[in-house]
Amino acid sequence: LSATKKHDVVVIGGGPGGYVAAIKAAQLGYNTACIEKRGSLGGTCLNVGCIPSKALLNNSHLYHEIKTESSKRGIDIEGEVKPNLGNLMKAKDTAVKQLTGGIEMLFKKNGVTYYKGNGSFVDEHNIKVEPIEKGVEESILEASNIIIATGSEPTPFPGIEVDQERIVDSTGALALKEIPKKLAIIGGGIIGLEMGSVWARLGSEVTIIEYQTAIGGAGMDAEVAKATQKFLKKQGLNFQLGAKVKSATRVGDEVDIEYEDAKTGEVKSIKSDVLLVAVGRRPYSAGLNAESIGIEFDQKKRIVIDSEYKTKLPHIQCIGDVTFGAMLAHKAEEEGIAAVEFIKNGHGHVNYGNIPAVMYSHPEVAWTGKNEEELKAAGIKYKTGKFPFVANSRAKTNMDTEGFVKFIADAETQRVLGVHIIGPNAGEMIAEAGLAIEYGASCEDIYRTCHAHPTLSEAFKEAAMTVFDKPINY
Ligand code: FAD
């Protein structure tokens, strides 16, 4: 028999969307529970996404810098500089463990009840929790408000079977047992390019096979995508663009991949030690039993919501990767807060025109707001301004001068419409662009804001200036 427990708000899924919503709801005074079946909080992002990938990116970059650049930076190293994959993975696991454990502590601090198990709808107000731990009894949670935040999973490639050994998805690519001599990656989006960067730095020969003729996926400005491909090529990544994968088969300890040149129809094949399938992510709602209570899904299996995150049943909301919009952790978090605010006082706010995107390669690539292609399509007249890091003093002292800051502004008012950065710390710098867009700043507003010297952010200021005037340092 199941014991029934009552809560004001029950959140299903403990990823960045769900755990943030749960904490916010508890802070606003609701008796809140969060159900998570993974066994640890933080969802895809903390367990097998943002966090482990950034740990590997940061340390593989350090290794690569030390190996290739230490001498010219004035550091002589005796003996061979070698990667230690075991310790690299250990450092990644430590970061993940500390952060996921941290959320559990935050739940305790804020009084969120944490149920470790699978949540599924019994009816419109009751959710069954099937515990993952032995000896824990099943419970039924009765909730006035429910927030679905069940996230996403890697999209499979038809006909290619992931074994997480030779043919892996992003989860497998974060935990390879040895450095592959040859790594092929299907998909030139951000996840594919980040993982390609990691393993190329550690010594793998990496080939990206992408169906589109440009890398970076949707949203990346075409000029930026081209420049990004150039610097990744320089770092040793190979690109097969406009290439349609036909098949990939494991043969012993190798993978045979066959693809077709989309233009000429010529069929080519390559062999790799490991193949990463990184063709995107799809909404995840298996085991939720949401269909049974009339929750609506669209053709892409996303849960359909209105502008207040409400499903067809108004007391059930949905946020994050399992519904519409960019599949990004910070977007899910914003929605978590907004959804709870809608419950509390009937209004909440997410500006979907100003969600930053970052690729944590080196240099980093970051953008927010509109790109040129979008503005052209909308018939909006704009001006651009660009400033290269090679003319920035801090980038020079850091010996890290690749890339540029590009502003796109309204042709008449100079109001900032989009900012696109390739460069060291672009992911941090893009926050200033977000603030500018949020508050309707013009390029002159940014130029007239004093920026510290010598910092990379001076390149940001000077790029804004080039929209309406000449830069000083270039
Ligand atoms: P998720 O994080 O997927 O969490 C959903 C949780 O719900 C899961 O833990 C799941 O176990 C649980 N769940 C599902 N169904 C049930 C159920 N019925 N009962 C109980 N629990 C359930 N985004 C960024 O912004 N920046 C990055 O740098 C970045 N890097 C990434 C790198 C990789 C390799 C990957 C794969 C993703 C990356 N992302 C990044 C994307 C990011 O991880 C997701 O956008 C984000 O995790 C979505 O949050 P969410 O809360 O919607 O869902």
Automatic annotation (TrEMBL):
Residues holding NAD(+): G187, G188, G189, I190, I191, G192, L193, E194, E210, G280
All copies of domain FAD/NAD(P)-binding, residue ranges: 7-336
Active site, per annotation: H453
UniProt catalytic activity: N(6)-[(R)-dihydrolipoyl]-L-lysyl-[protein] + NAD(+) = N(6)-[(R)-lipoyl]-L-lysyl-[protein] + NADH + H(+)
Disulfide bonds: C45-C50
CC per GO annotation: mitochondrial matrix; oxoglutarate dehydrogenase complex
Cofactor: FAD
Gene Ontology MF term list: dihydrolipoyl dehydrogenase (NADH) activity; flavin adenine dinucleotide binding
Recorded superkingdom: Eukaryota
Protein name: Dihydrolipoyl dehydrogenase
